[in-house]
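User: quick one, sequence for these tokens?
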């Protein structure tokens, strides 16, 4: 369990874009301790598709420097997922 009592060490925000026709992509982040970090999904957008509610999106830490994004369905438009990774002391 992550203890938030000791405060925030680092916050990283960004966007991972999954290309049209693909179902996953990755982003490189500054090194973190994965056992003391959480990911927040901040929102999404898909080209001209509008509503992205049905894409079944997932964000996960692959390792200490890689964030992975995936969607359950391929899209004819690129899908952008906005994230925040918070590392605690």
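Assistant:
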């Amino acid at each position: 369990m992550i203890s938030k009592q000791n405060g925030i060490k680092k916050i990283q925000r960004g966007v991972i874009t999954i290309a049209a026709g693909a179902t996953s992509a990755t982003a490189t982040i500054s090194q973190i301790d994965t056992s003391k970090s959480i990911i927040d999904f901040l929102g999404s957008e898909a080209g001209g598709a509008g509503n992205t509610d049905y894409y079944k999106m997932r964000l996960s830490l692959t390792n200490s420097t890689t964030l992975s994004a995936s969607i359950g369905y391929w899209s004819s438009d690129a899908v952008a997922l906005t994230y925040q990774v918070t590392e605690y002391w």
